[in-house]
Prior knowledge:
Blueprint: E1 9-14, E2 26-32, H1 38-46, H2 49-56, E3 64-70, E4 73-77, H3 88-104, E5 108-116, H4 123-134, E6 138-144, H5 151-168, E7 173-176, H6 185-196
Parallel strand pairs: 2-4, 2-5, 5-6, 6-7
Antiparallel strand pairs: 1-3, 3-4
Amino acid sequence: MKNHFQQTCFIMGTPDSRRGPPDSGVEVAFAGRSNAGKSSALNVITGQRALARISKAPGRTREINFFEVSDGIRLVDLPGYGYAKVSKSMKGQWQRNIAHYLETRQSLCGVVLLMDVRHPLKDYDQQVLNWCYAAELQTHVLLTKADKLKRGPAQSALLQTRKKLQNLHPEASIQLFSAHTRAGDEALQQVLYGWLGLETTEA
Ligand code: GDP
């Protein structure tokens, strides 16, 4: 299958999405607690190690980082949340920035929410799901680091989380994912291609 994300490149980072690239075309945002595996997933999807390094550069971790896939098509890396050490005012700022982005961004057509398969649906994850639901955004949950569990426990985590998800965002889809084994990579690409209107057939 053709990988449409191979030419993805960094456009800009900003804490305030109003200062982001023009709100036209389509984009998909990636959200998750810090350490959930967001950078690793972005590396797998794009086949580019440098991309996620940009998002991790000092000063950039609090920013909304915009990447261009091709003309008018973007991937957006939202700042990781859940740092225990972050002050209350920083948390408030984070919430305002992300909530504002999710509520107002016209070109945003879907959100991928990443959660460690061993610790799904923490408070902030539920908050993001609430925002996505309220904003009527398509949402796809990735249960990351699936390789850390054996097949049985991984499947049962998937079923349990899917059930809980029904109450939070009934339309959301969910899958297991591993950046290490690349399990779930193709399923994720299919979801993204569908949202972004990219060709999914053999090129
Ligand atoms: P981020 O903070 O959400 O961007 O998370 P990272 O992508 O930097 O990953 C955090 C840690 O989890 C790193 O040590 C990664 O090597 C590890 N990690 C990420 N994805 C996987 C995975 O699929 N399997 C395993 N076993 N570890 C992973």
